[in-house]
Amino acid sequence: MTNEEVVNFKKMAWQSKEAAEVYNKGVQPNLYFNLIEFPLYMDYIKETDSVFDMAAGTGILTLYLADRVRKVVASDISKEMLFYIEQQKKPNVSIFHVDSDTCDFSKVGKFDVVTSHWFMPHYAKWEHFLAQKKQLCKKNGYIIFDLLSKDNMLLAKKDIIQVKKALGYSEHAVGVSETELKEACDRLNLEVVKLIPTSFIASNGLFLSELTFDEYVSYRECVEKLYHNPIFMDFIQKFEKTIVQSSNIATSLKYIAVLQNKG
Ligand SMILES: C[S@@+](CC[C@H](N)C(=O)[O-])C[C@H]1O[C@@H](n2cnc3c(N)ncnc32)[C@H](O)[C@@H]1O
Fold first, then answer.
1. φ/ψ of residue 46, rounded to 5
2. 150: which of 26, 175, 183, 194 fits an S-S bond (Cβ 3.0–4.6 Å)?
């Protein structure tokens, strides 16, 4: 599939009531997002800020942000996905039904922060989506999103399609190396403020190198069960903060990228 074909395929993937319902059931807020991943976004977001959440889906990040910031715009190409956000009737959340691939965002307004979650790793055309996000971001505002580390995917010493599948992504998912991200940011006049490794226990290139595909999948199933256990999560929260985020042993496959718009 070409990049264009993947983008078109992904545009359609969640545009039915049934698909949106299945997605919403599968992606309920969990302790991992609320205790570990989304607080990383909040380190760069103030309660007075306006946030544009691109490809918000059924709102796992939008709704987390809504309780913590002044206003959030939840945008997505799928009305069926956005329905689940509308249903919550949050007074500071507005819905924007739009195709982020083709929209001229320069006419939409500027936000303090532009976010996305589980969007960029789906596209080889990630630099184009980054440029789209920049159009929505105020000067010195932040652009924050998750990505798959291409560098750490190589640590898995496996066929890269197998790595993506082990992580639950389709073969069209894409990793981005630190160098590629920096080069793209230079072209777009964005600064890489921080690349934060996360999900060390669940998504790790070194662990994947030691296990077969099937062993890794069953290992992840065990970890995901533990993610519902508050005592385990208390440990993971401290482990990620004190060891993963503050040391050089980052072998995580998942990163949070924090960029600043330099104008
Ligand atoms: C994997 S879901 C992530 C949703 C949500 N951010 C989350 O974390 O659960 C990807 C979302 O991207 C949306 N999407 C795909 N292509 C899009 C496009 N061109 N413009 C806007 N949204 C798009 C889909 O409709 C879907 O809701």
1. -100, 160
2. 175
50 token code pair: 């306006």
Question: From ligand 1's centre to the CA of 199, what distance in Å?
Answer: 21
**Ligand 1 touching residue 24 (CB < 6 A):** no
Residue 99, pLDDT > 90, answer yes
The CA distance from 237 to 234, in Å, is: 5
Q: Is there a contact between 116 and 59 (Cβ–Cβ < 8 Å)?
A: no
Domain segments of the chain as ranges: 3-261
136-157 tens-digit pLDDT: 999 999 999 999 999 999 999 8
Does residue 56's CB lie within 6 angstroms of at least one atom of ligand 1? yes
Half-sphere exposure of 61 (CA within 13 A, CB side): 28
Q: What is the pTM of this model?
A: 0.95
Q: Probe ligand 1: pick from 77, 85, 86, max atoms within 8 Å of CB?
A: 77
More confident residue, 52 or 26: 52
Q: Are 202 and 220 in contact (CB under 8 A)?
A: yes
Phi, psi of 113 (to 5 degrees): -140, 140
The CATH architecture that domain 3-261 belongs to is 3-Layer(aba) Sandwich (3.40)
Residue written as tokens 């989304």? 38
Instruction: Calculate the average pLDDT of the chain.
Output: 93
Top mutation candidate among 9, 10, 53, 75 for ligand 1, by most atoms within 8 Å of CB = 10
Tokens of 139: 């000067």
The rounded Cα 257 to chain-centroid distance in angstroms is 9
